[in-house]
Every structure is written in structure tokens, then in C-alpha cells.
Amino acid sequence: MSDGYGAEMSIVPCALSAEVFEQLEAGAVDVAVLPIENSLHGSVAEHYDLLLAHGVSIAGEWLLRVRHNVIAAPGARLEDLRQILSHPVALSQCRKWLRAHPEITSVPYYDTAGSVKHLMESGARDEAGIAPELAARQYGAEVLAAGIEDHPDNFTRFLVLKKTSGERVARANKLSVAFSLEHKPGTLLRSLEAFKAAGLNLTSIESRPVHGRPWEYVFFVDVRFDDAERLDQALAGLRNCCQMVKELGRYPAA
Questions:
Q1: Sign (positive or negative) of CA dihedral 237, 238, 241, 245
Q2: Is 156 a catalytic residue?
Q3: What is the mean pLDDT of the chain?
Q4: Does the CA dihedral 34-44-235-201 come out positive or negative?
Q5: Dihedral of the CA atoms 222, 173, 153, 69 (nearest 10)?
Q6: What confidence category does residue 31 fall into, taking pLDDT thresholds of 50, 70 and 90?
Q7: For residue range 38-83, what is the model confidence (pLDDT) as tens digits?
Q8: Three-class secondary structure of residue 237 per DSSP
Q9: Mind listing the domains of the chain with CATH numbers?
Q10: Is 158 tagged catalytic?
Q11: What is the arrangement of strands in the sheet containing 83-86, beginning at the earlier edge strand?
Q12: The one catalytic residue among 21, 112, 156, 195
């Protein structure tokens, strides 16, 4: 991982995404890395909700080419498999392969590499995991089928998160921001016009439901910029027409 997040860091595993945010806010870790979007699966909705709820900031982003493999214990055969485990997002990226093998039941598991660890501990020969090749090397398993993702251009965008400090990130040229609007005609259009007026390019927009207020939404927008003054102008215009505006981070685009 580049941009100063070096190899000498100690890795702290968490079972749940919420734990990642809690550890970061508590100061137990310095930096967190979480996926926010996959080119096949789409957005990781839970992570948008957690970004809004916690005092953390996006300090960077990182794109990773993802390759999925069917991995099993040594001696297992593809034709003998009856169950395959992996993270739900990984399973959704391999739908074509799973449909082509209806005799194999897919089972959601908490982690891709964790599924390989589990099957190696269980010793099952009719069970496999979907995971990176590194998991096979790490746990002494074998790859039975390589590159089973639905499309070779399978990328995941990860966010690098830090506890919110107010400190600006050097070389920032991208903003992530969340905002909510009055439930009236034209309010979304007026909010987006603030970016148009400043000459800024939106690279993505997502919506998430407001808890406790059915059919109302928080919008998450990513914006590219090369002039911080024009960005501040756009944010001022956004605050004039929104109920809530929260900057999630200014950072270098991947």
C-alpha cells in the first residue's frame, strides 16, 4: 500500500465493519482500510451509513484488481464439491460460475480468506472457499478453479480512513460529502447546481435512507476538483439549500 502507509504497520483484524470504526475513533488504530465500491457488485451500503455516523475522515483511496478462485483442501476434486463458502460480496461477483454449478450450494461467510482457513481446519473434502490465491498459499490449500469472477475487469475501491482531526490532506483533488434535503420538488436539482456553478465534476452519487424517516434520503457525492476555492464556493452553495452537509474527506484520487 502506497502514500506513506508503510509495510511496518501492525495489522489489527476486526470481525465486523462497525468494530473498525469504533477502533479508529477510540484511537486503538491509526488508519483503517475498508471497501466502499466494487465494479461488479456496486456499493457497500453499510459503509456509507458508518461513514455518516462516525467521526472519521477519508484520507485516501486505493484501487485493487480482485481475482477470485475456488480453493479447497489438498486432494479435493471440483466434481465432489457440494458447498462453497465466501463473503456475500465475493459470492455476488461470481454469479455466473455459481449458476453453472447448481450442484454446489453457496454459503455466506464472514471473510474470503477466513473461508479457506475454516475448510482447512474442518478437513472437509466436499467443501471449498472463494478467495484470493494468497489464502491458498497461507493455509496450505489448493486452487481448483482460477479467475471465476464474472468479468476480468473486477476492481474494488478501498477508502483509507483516519480519525477526524481537521487536518487537510496534501495533494487533495477529490472530495466526498454527504447531505440531506427537504422532501420537496427540485431540492436535489438545486443542490447539484451548486457544483455545476463552481465548474466541478461529480464522479459518483449514492443515496441511503434516513433512519426513522421513510422515503427520505441522505446523498453521498464524490467530486473532483483542482481549485480549493471553487470547491469551498460549491460547499457554501450546498449548505444554503441543504438540511445537513458533512464533509467526509478531501484526499488524492486514486
A1: negative
A2: yes
A3: 92
A4: positive
A5: -90
A6: very high
A7: 999 899 999 999 999 999 999 999 999 999 999 999 999 999 999 9
A8: helix
A9: 17-64+156-251 (3.30.70.260), 69-146 (3.40.190.10)
A10: yes
A11: 105-108, 83-86, 127-131, 69-72, 142-146
A12: 156
